[in-house]
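Lecture notes, unit on binding sites. The following record was shown on slide 14. It pairs a sequence with fe (ii) ion.
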Amino acid sequence: MKILGLESTAHTFAASTIDEEQIYTNEKSMYQPEEGGIHPRKAAEHHYQKAHEIISKGLEGEIDAVAFSQGPGIPQCLDIGAVAARTLAQKHDVPLIGVNHCVAHIEIGKRTTDAERPVTLYLSGGNSQVIAEKNSQYRIVGETLDIALGNAVDKLARKLGYPHPGGPEIEKLAEQTDEIIEIAYPVKGMDFSFSGIVTELEKKVGQVEDEVIANTFQEHAYASTVEALERAMAQADSNEALLTGGVAMNNRLREMVEAMCEQRNANAYFPPKQYCMDNAAMIAERGLKKAKRKQFTDLKNSEIKQNWRPEGIKV
Ligand code: ATP
Ligand code: FE2
């Protein structure tokens, strides 16, 4: 069964064709703001302008269904992908499948690693959640109480004068020192929060070297998520950890997850980097699983869901 997936929740417009055996294409174009963060209308404009080119490259042969990111995300951006998906489904006379973007991050992780029933640490620009599986449903067992981790690192980088996305810049800076300043980092049960860490470090800009600020951020913010992940694994009695989302490309974070898993005799799984950040193969993968269960989306139920949480969604 061949599925075309479309992704357009935030900065990336992407298209991918997959089946059970193979990922044939994984095309994407990323909107890069000239300054500041993601501007919803400008990102949507980027998607609209790139859609034809990316879909032409990403659509491979005869397809059996079109899957698209139905939410959560930036409404203006989601709309572009939804309109394109509805049109393609009608043109090719195949069913439409609305997909939860967060669940898709997990399911491409399972496809590209040996993880079977992991506790997932999903860290991106818009989301930061610890997700476990219970009775074959995804459950959010921990999450950020304020902003997402990617958003936090992007904000800090912007304050230091680096362009979007800030995660890789902060990582490069942090690698240049072992020094940190000690600050408070809140972990409440399995929830965490990053606003306070960013505010605290923003106050140090100009007083402390950029490298030390970056390293302090990584050692506190990233460690707090791994602490929550460990607690979630203990509660779920799980020996599998899956790291995904754009921030999962961070090497220091991967090291921390690996060290924690080693101590617990658990396995840490990291999808290849092109499947950590937003991509369309993950949307097609989730779509493929839904198609096999004939869970299609009627046109009248295909409206975008800006705040669609993965809570309670069937694995
Ligand atoms: P979602 O819609 O799932 O919230 P997203 O739109 O934020 O996803 P992603 O591609 O999953 O998109 O994640 C982008 C984030 O990943 C950005 O905040 C970026 O700074 C961060 N990031 C990318 N590379 C790194 C890195 N090496 N270290 C830390 N953060 C990184
Ligand atoms: Fe994402």
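Take-home: The longest strand covers residues 12-18.
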